[in-house]
Records
---
Amino acid sequence: MAEDRKKMQLLEKKEKYDNLYLAALPVVTTYLFELKKQWKKFVIFSLVAVSFVILLSYLPYALIPDNPLPDTQADYFQSGLNFLIMIVIFGSCFFFSGIICSEYGDKTGFITFPIINKYKLVTGKFLGALTLMIGVVAAFYITLGVLGIYWYGGPINYRYYYSFGIAILYVLAVGSFVTFLSSFMPNVNITIVSAIMFLLIANMIIDSLVMLLYPEFEPIYSLNHATDLISYILVEDFPTKLEDRYEEVEFRNFSRRIWLTPTIEMGITIFLVYTIVCLVVAAIIFKRRQL
Amino acid sequence: MAIIMKRNRVKKISLGFFILSTILIGLSSTSITAFTTYEPALNKGTVAFIVNQYNEGKWEDTVDRELDPDDFFDGDSDEIGARSKTTIKNVGNYKWDLHDALIFLLDVESFIDEDKLNENETLFLLSFLSKDYVDEVYPEKYYVWEALTVKWDFETEEFDESPDEKALILPIFKNPQDYNDLLEDYNKWTLSVNSTKVFLGKEPFPILDGDDFLWLLITSGIFTIARPFNSYLTTLIDKLDCDDAEVKGNTLILEKKGEEEYTVEVTFSDQGMQSSLVIKNDEGRVIYEIAQDNTDMVVLIVSGVIAASVAGILIVLIIRRKKFRQ
Amino acid sequence: MSKTTMESDKLDMKTDKISSIEPIEKPETGLKTVMRLENLTKKFGNFVAVNNINIEVHEGETIGLIGPNGAGKTTTIKLIAKLIRPTSGEILVLNKAGKLQSLNGDDKDLVKFGFLIDQPFFYDMTAYQILRYFARSQNYPKKKINARLDELLKLFKLADWKHQKVKTFSKGMRQKMGIIQSILVDPQIIILDEPQTGLDPKARLEIRVTIRELQHQGKTIFVASHMLHEISEVCDKIALINNGRIIAFDTIENLEKNLKEKELNCQLLYPIPTSDIEGTINRLNDKLIQYVNHFMEVSTADHNHGVKYNPENQTFKIYYDGKKESRGEILEIFIAEFKSNNKIISFSQPKTSKLEQIYLEMIQMDEPRDGGG
């Protein structure tokens, strides 16, 4: 009797695992397929990332003898990471833009073969694109890190790893934003253009307007503001006081604040809020969107 | 007609010979020039050093009972395993004058013993160090390559993030003979300073000979040479008229007398920086040694080789797979 | 009696005597229903793409959903595929426990479906990579995938292309890829939308052979097409769809027979003046209302299309209820109508009525519509 019960329990457990496996299988398969599908894009963007680092953080120092290296490895990383934002924005636009709209616009996707749950399909695609984009960012960080060792010796400053962690959160936020655009845009190209326009231009305009209208207001809504944390976290004495986190600039009797960085908690929260809001809205639109 | 043709041929041969001669002379003169012209070998980057050996007892018996290595080489240089590093930020062309040398190279300010001088005397001495004064009296300019560096002193622990010296300048005199001119100017300046009433009954600034000057350069930690190193060093000790120094390859060997006689071997790296310093007693036993620490570079090279191998294997696999499919 | 029933609900309400298109309330005992569409309607704004369709599909049947472009075929299939949501109505599908289950719920318990919707486009990968993905994502046994792929690629003559990128494929080859993916994991229900589009005659034949093969394996197949002649020979039954409504559904033989029996031709000696045509038709429609084939009326929505006039051969076509007594009464009405200024020279039932012809005539009676199928 007890043996039967044990057998039953084992069977139930097995069934549970089987169900879990079956539920996860489409996500995993789509994830792996996405990796294969976007592999070339990954190689190209990684090469671009590596080239960016070499072009902007190696050649100017190697070819121009007068051009001084920053004092420390952390300073060097800080200046090199300024260019990461471009890579993340452009990379994310290309990796994430097709996640939803390519399934509708060009019918190139799998949604027209409705053999797997569409949410699982999109989840797999999102995770695949996220992994590849993190890979591109990792290529950037590794190259910059190697150059950091090349110029300054080892070991790599531990705050560089924090910066990498925050950069991953930034990728997640930008990727989610592009996915959100992808959920209602008609095709990939329009999604890419819109995302770039918003992330590069509209964001900047909004920030400038807010700065003009409310000079003392910290732009906690702004992804741009949060990205300052990626490089600013490398500063040895990270500012904890409010007054240390901005610089007051006077221009023709007009005083304005240039925000240097959000606090660590604030920066992480901004990224997470962007991620959650964008993904939730994208999921709602995706649910309602029809082929 | 034939004569004209012959003349033309002679003309052509003469012209060819002339051009060839010009090229050969040009080449030979270039090589002569190259030999006498020095080139900086210093590149941007970081060089680390480590104290490999220190025999405290022997140091006291041989080198100095009063002064420890850290009095010469700063930081924890009297601890085995202590590391220091210098990051070369940039290299540029500049002109130096005696004032620069007094401040940056010879660190004359450190000669002023404020405990033995009152405030007015100190100020008076410092007036001799003012740029206006020095430039007016000693207007000679020296052409240098100047490297801006930051330096971490010898530490047994991990390095602090911020360097101990944020704007250390390494000069490389384009002509090693300039060191001699500098020495002469320094001695003139010192004489003029020492002759003032401030030093009455007190220890004056030292008048240096070539060997002293060379030792001062070595212990300054910023003495750097240009390529070709052997020629540079040989010219330097010749011009400074050093009696106790000799050059072997890239190594400068100094005979010193402390508590006992000892030798100091300073080897210069392929960048012209002091890559090692070995102090030996007269028996040839090492009392103290600072060497270049290449651990980071080894890590970098090993990582590079591993990364290249992995990339290579991947590429080969991809190509083979593609071929297999075809 | 048919194994499968498809109908429009108006038809259900108004028609009671036309056996071939008569709604079947319940399937025959012993036949398992694998899919049922109940009052399925899809509107895009004011446009009704699918209008109150009721379909019941039984296990092992091959159903052809035939209609012109814009008739609502693809919309119906997209509704089944959950690519779009119905405005009203419901789709029930057989689950693994053998019961019908709403498609709105969790689909993990449903029987396996294979779909080919619209013209398939694929990501730019090799055929093998794409098909492997489809197989793996549906938990097809890993060890058997390669053998299955080789088998299907060979069947569709794509074996030599398996490692080529799909972007190098022709339209027809992509179509074949689409069909392969739809049958790859051996699904119980296969739904194909225009499977022969873009294919050459030989490939179209191959598709028909494949469908036959699948029929032998006991699969339930649902094929939508506008190419009646291509599909009809492999289908057990044909459902004609137009303007979002099912206008006829039965076996081909029954459709031909019944539609022929419900048609009369009445030829006049002289043509009716153009100005009188509309008035005459309206008058006749009013008089014939009790005899008119309501199925045809339904299919033509707002128009009185029980009577149709062709000025070229001065012939009226009358779609009636097929009863013998009605035929005589209709003749009397026509004689009364044309006795004064025109003469009836023939009044007969057509000897042959091919499905293709009926289909075309039925379609022509509808207003042209925009939009895809």
---
Amino acid sequence: MSDPIAQLIFLIVKAILLPVLIVLFVAFVIYFERKFAGFFQARVGPTYLGPWGSLQSFGDIFKLMSKEDVTPARADKPVFKLAPYIAFIPAFLVMAVLPFGPVGGEPNLFGYRFDYVIANFDAGLVLFLAMCALGVYGVVLAGWSSNSNYSLLGGLRAGAQMISYELAMGFSVVGVMLMAGSMSLVDIVDRQAGNFWDWYFIPQIVGAVIFFIASIAELNRTPFDLAEAEQELVAGHLTEYSGMRWGMFYFAEYVNLVVVSAIVSTLYLGGWRAPLEVLDFIPGPIWLFLKICVLIFLYMWIRWTIFRYRYNQLMSIGWKVLLPLSIANLAVTAVVVSLVG
Amino acid sequence: MDAGHDLPTPDAAAGATHRPTQEELRERKARTRRHLERTGEVMTLSMGPQHPSTHGVYRAVLDLDGEVVLAVRPEIGNLHRGVEKLCEYRTYHQIIPLTDRLDYISGFAMNHGFCEAAEKLMGVEVPDRGRYIRTIAHELCRLANHILWLGTHVMDLGTQTFFCICFRDREYVLDLFEMLTGARLTHSFCRIGGVAKDLPDGFDQRCRKVIDFLPKRVAEYERIIKHNRIYYKRAKNVGIFTAEDCYAWRVTGPTLRSAGVARDLRKDEPYAAYPEVEFEVAVEYNADVYDRFLVRMKEIRESCKIIRQCLDNLPDGPFLAPDAGHSLPVKKNVLRDPAAMIQDFYQVFRGPQAPKGEVYRGIEAPKGEMGFYIRSEGGSKPARVHFATPSFYHGQAVPALVEGEMVADVVAIFASVDLVLGDCDR
Amino acid sequence: MSAERAMAGGALSPSLVTAAERLERRFGARLRGRTEFRGELTYRVAAGDWVRVLSFCRNAPELAFDQLDCLLGDHLPERTEAPFEVVVHLLSHAHGHRLRVKTALAEGEGLPTITGLWPSAGFDERETWEMFGVVFHGHPDLRRLLTTDDFDGFPLRKDFPLQGTVGGRIRTDLRGKV
């Protein structure tokens, strides 16, 4: 079997296995979110299905699939039905460029070279930002097509919020790009080789914090969950959705959570690399998985602890604090990189 | 006791929240009205009656310009049960269970208020022990109400965790109520001339335990909320309602006290055992959402103090007036004592005989001043009963409170004045 | 016992006595009646004097009733010539006293609104209108408040039955108008 055919087989296996694994993982992320929320709130969370309620998400999926799917009479039906997919699919596409282990080098599997990435794409970072922007369409279209004022307000808020936070996010990412000299996520991880003090979160601490905050806004989670602010807008853009269509939005949100956590760890926390070189004997995917878990816990912790911002406060943070800071960070990085390198 | 108290409020962030003057507020409201008249380009959002944070079935039709509220039209009545009509067909004893369905969050206060009004009408003297037990129950009910208020108010600002924590703490108070009255929300515990039962065994001890740790919990709440930057930004200088506004719209209770008015019917027109206990009226001066929170936290502390004093000084003696003409007998005596049995028959079948006349009695319910008007033409049934409930007027004042603010503030302000729709719609 | 108990016996508070003297000096014989019961003072006024008396109550410094505690209607069917009553309870924060003012109305007779004096009368007047059929002239928004929009009858009148169905169906032609 020649190498290109082997690579093709590997590619198909990776392209099937990775989404499936992530979907399975997401089911448990949802379970853990509910369980942690329970613990934070002096409750126990789900307990019925499976040991400690661990199969709750699967039960939910079956429940959602068996529920009636209501489309409002005066909704824009094609768009209304399309919106969940627009929210759902971009989240998965980012996985293609996500390195979860070493790429290139010596043959490592049955005498063939197995790359731990689906597509070693030169502009992986751009793809990530593009998919983030595309995901907004799902929310905005859902809000617009529902023909409900709550949905519309939620969609408008989501649109404005995501656009203003994407700017700060983009600028903070450029800092990493300058340091790595590449837009490929594979290269960015390779540049962070070594121990944890070689990771980018130390030189790029400002950028890392801005990226993290902006990613909370991207993910629509408290304190920036204005799009579906339950207490104000009932469920924002999700108000009119029911059954599995609602489930797809919900699921997309958590797939996004996993993907964004993976991106944060790739950009700033050394991706699949071990924190110390002596720990390199543990495979890369496990390290990446652990980092994702820690980040997801952090997101949950924030979500279940603090209050929601008001719309104008959210905007002023985005435009008056995060954006100038990220530009300043970019300028400093550019000067330092050009002087040193 | 409360470490949270010593921390400074995050006034450093005050630069971010400019406190509007009266003129600015008036100008802001006028500007929104002018905009509404000039452009007519508004988005109408029907908030409620089925909405997560209208605290029941309140409906506010909002006219929005983007996120800014231009005008509000309140719609109430979805929970109207015609209590006033029902009261005209029932004896005074039978009305008591209707009253705790008004403000079902603080049922005992409603029972108590009606009994005070009926006693004023009939001229019944409540024995000392009865007055003290009433005071204890009334303050417990204030505790339950304010803790629940805190949970829902904070949830309206976006944190669900705290809601559950408040519910956990309210549970201790409800357990006390269960022990005292047998019910958790709708107690029907007050009687004309006293209360239904004496304090049960072990109540004293258990109650003390709860009122010992609740102030600690309040300090904990304040550490979490009072010094939270986002809460401060969301609540400070939002929903300003000055004393004059409060008088004009009959907004009472903690909202009035947050505007710097030390008005508390427990002090001003004392009833039950309030003249004999020492407590402070919680007053704040900024008249915004943040100060309403502070006022209620202070009131929880004061309520604990009142309950402790009542437990310490609880007098012996009867808890129900031995007034055969107007009050029910002690229940456990009914099947033992012939006189009590006759009294029971008389009261149940004939009812208390009230003189001709009309009375109005205001009490300080947890949500504000609750007025009870009874007109009697003699006999056992009132000719007209009217409940001047705080929530009714708070619901009416919502437009004056929120016009010119943002959508997100609507729920925050709405929650901060504290209304419950059972009370509002009657 | 407490001052409150003593008051229940019938004594008026000193500030209220002063206020009552002032009110009587101003209106004299135009006040239709004065009742004291359990320390509460009630004045009856003619419907024509309604706003004049109440605005005096609000504005005169001795009275200074800055808060309207409640406004309610009442129905006394045995009084055939004027079976309806409108009662207001006033409260003065400055003096801490209360006053009740009431007026009698015949069927179909209305009253001028007092929302200009106390905005909080708005809901109360709407409620009184829907429950008793007393019209308040000049009210900015006199619609049904607690009952449905197609409700028929005035439920708190004594001749309105306690049980039965009135206007129980849901009207779709009102959609968008409420």
---
Amino acid sequence: MDGTADFFRWLAEAHRIDVSIAYDPLDRKRFLIGLWTTIWLSGVCIGSSILVGLIGAWLHGARSAAARGAVQVFVQFFRNTPPLVQLAFFYFAVSAALPPVTDRFGASVPLIDNVGWAIVSFSLFAGAFNVEIFRSGIEAVPRATVEAAESLGYTRLAAYRHVVLPLAFRVCLPALGNNLVNLVKTTTLAYAIGVPELLYAASQVWSEVFNVREMMVVLLLTYVALVAVLVHGLRRWERAMRIPGYSA
Amino acid sequence: MNPGHVLGAPIVVLNRVEKRFGDNPVLRDVSFSVARGECVCVIGPSGSGKSTLLRAINALVPISAGSIAVDGIEVNDPKLDKLALRRRVGIVFQQYNLFPHKTALDNVMMAPIHVLKENPAEVEARARALIAKVRLTGKEAAYPGELSGGQQQRVAIARALAMNPKVMLFDEVTAALDPETKKEVLVTVRELAAEGMTCLLVTHEMGFAREVADHVYFTEDGVIVEHGPPAEFFGSPKQARTRAFLDQVL
């Protein structure tokens, strides 16, 4: 570790290539906190956006016209507006409309903090796309297969659980993967409301050390690695779910 | 003919059944009954409402008027207990419609476990016996996509039988198969009929109908044109339309 730090210190002094996070403990800590925040934020948003997608797709198939209409409005709203504007809308407009709460030091703070709004905003944004993705998967399951389940006595819910969703999921995994990759990249927008994720951490470093070029490269390579891990995981999942003799 | 068993009381009774899709009548004033242990074949040109008839018996399509009773359960009733009906009626489709993400054994085991909440170990023993009965021992772990059409259709028959139905409906179960595999499936159906299972088949297999059926119905344009025991029906059809149809297909 010391050898590596020495090398980067030498690189900065001799060649003015200053990767300060490699030798400066404070910068490294900031960067690692940013990395962890991005991973954590992405993980939470992936989980909740899938949940939003499943609920939305389920409601879309409901008998109630009101439920179907509500899903349509939700999807149109979040799909047709820029995520940065959505984030600002939640953080500045919605947050101001909510009653503040008192924290343990007696100070008045917003009900939901910036990290909370980032989670809400990204989950709904990616969730809207997931609704469409799951819906297309569900529609790809042949009506006859569902009928076979019904004729064996399955209720709609049971047929969904045991037949429709397992098949629909396999159909929509590639599209879902694309959307989740986009979601991970979209988390950088949380920079705008001061969430200490990767971009925020990098900007902290470069505004003190003036190593914008180096940190940009580090930032890009970190995202390449992060998304590569996610894509690798999705591929393995896809392979594990493959059915012999069946092409979805 | 099945001289080996005695026919019982009616178990499926259709009375003046009508079905319209919009303004288009598919079934018009159809009445007939199937006795316990009887094997009935329904034949007729495509689009004559045969499949709709079977699907109506299983409440997969609602009828417009009339009454269908299965083992005392009225199907044309808004308060129909669908599970009670579907426990009694097994259906096998032209396109097999197996669950592609499950092995042959799982396909047979699923409904008794999920729907009837039966003990998985007992269901598995029964499922393995059914797989053997349809002559697919060794294929338990195969997925539908790895099986031939005839093999898939026999898994579908085993799947329906696993629910211990009182009536089996067969909707053109050999129409999608080549002549070789057709035979495997027909052998299985013939065995079921010989064991006394009540069977109602919609089929284009005239030879099979002649050999296995206790009674044959000929439908055209949603009405029953003629019916009778196979020897009589195929030997000396009375109606001109029946004769025209038989001349075409035989």
---
Amino acid sequence: MSLLTANNLTVSIGELTICKKTELRFAADQTWAILGRNGSGKTTLLHTLAGLREPQEGIIHLRTQPMAQLQRRFIAKQLGILFQQQDDPFPATVMETALIGRHPYIESWRGETAEDIQCAESALKSVELEGFEHRFSSTLSGGEKQRLKIATLLTQNPQIMLLDEPTNHLDLNHQIKLLNLISKVTQARQGVTLMVLHDLNLAARFCTHALLLNPGEAPLQGSLEEVLQAESLERAYGWPVKRFNINGKVFYHPQ
Amino acid sequence: MTKSTKLISFLFLAALISLFVSISSGAMSLSLTQIWQALTGDSESLAYMLIWELRLPRAITAFVVGAMLSIAGALMQVILRNPLADPYILGVSGGASVAALLAMLAGIAGIGISISAFAGALLSTLLVFSIAHGSGSWSPMKVLLTGVVLAAGWGALISLILALSPDQGLRSMLFWLMGDFSYSSSYGWGSLTLLVGFIASYWLARPLNLLLHGSVQAASLGVSVEKVYLLIFLVASLLTAVAVSLAGNIGFVGLIVPHLVRLSIGSDHRSLLPACLLLGGTLMLIADLLARTLFSPQQLPVGVITALLGVPLFLLILHRGLRKY
């Protein structure tokens, strides 16, 4: 079943047309890699799919309902997004930050319940930030901040996750752990995850589908096998890429 | 008891004590029994008149103005996403000042000055809104820049009016510009505005917490950002406009009180807003008390005291680094 669908979607920003009259279907149990050069419109596309930006043309459906007609709070219970950039000019603790993920579930006259706090605690634990609850987020390292953002998203617990460069600032260990965690959550929720990635090997390892943006052309989409071929990657990135298949595992090597 | 409940109870107590000290001291100090008699209705005494007609109205006005400015400051800092924002940053006080000074120049006195200051504040707010919204899209940065530029324009007009005014009016104009409670006559409207403004912003406390993390993040977590922004701007502008019309330009309170509270209990608006109300009101009460009594019978402009009190207090707390920025 398609959880997130775009019909006849045209998105452009400035002079750049990211996609034109494109059909996109993101179904349960799929993990999509969104790939493309810098400035090819990955983030803009992600924000459009999250309903945070009006498309030039086309309709985005959340399950069967047109997103533009839905309340933000209703959307937030189904769909969560991890932003690439975020700066917090005011002090907030790690716990307070993780708890904002519960916002869509709490009525405006109510406070957080013990259940909400437990939810935030287990999210923090899953990104290895237990014991950091009372630290200020401004005192965290880049990688820790990134994990806190992911914990906030897990606290929100949406079925559809849109992740903009989730592995930013993460060390090797945490990159793999995080992507394992995301796969596990996606499966458990029978959800769909879209992630902007720059590492083709991570995409090959953790994703089932790929969307490859080509400025000035229609984006390529489909299964990993269909999209991540050496020629199309070379065209998209403007750099020769070799593809290896070793014992059924696919690896990419930029020349 | 959590840290924020502790702080709020402490501030509540401090507010009561300073209110009491404020109505008991002045050119004629009153004893506890005199105050009690006056409050319980011995309407013949001098103390009764002194308290009900002079000191209590003035004390309440001071408290209300301080509270309004502090809440407005906290709101402005969040929606403009700028720790340097204060209630006056969008030129509200500039507009109010120009209108008030023009009224003084025209020989209007008393409540007329408050009314024209309020009109000027509203005019300035509308100007900022319509100019910043003019070309469609709308961002905190655009509103901020529009406000700052307009404020500079008002500043020039103020200087122009001062330069052209006859000497005998200058002193009262300067006092008004520095913030002064001697014009304040009615505190009913102020109290009502504070109540409405506080309830509205408290209702939006959790969305405000989310807005601290940026408007797109808030939107992605279910906040109707445009609606909340608009409402908060209206509340903050209204609070500021009424505060300015009651007491002129009192700087600093609206900037530092929210920071003082954040430094000690963090940025959760459910405790930040009530704490701002109490701390802002109390600081203003104390500042007004000092302004009335330090060089009595000579009165000082209260704005001078708020800055003189505020600067060292803020630096001290910042230096102790209770909360990390």
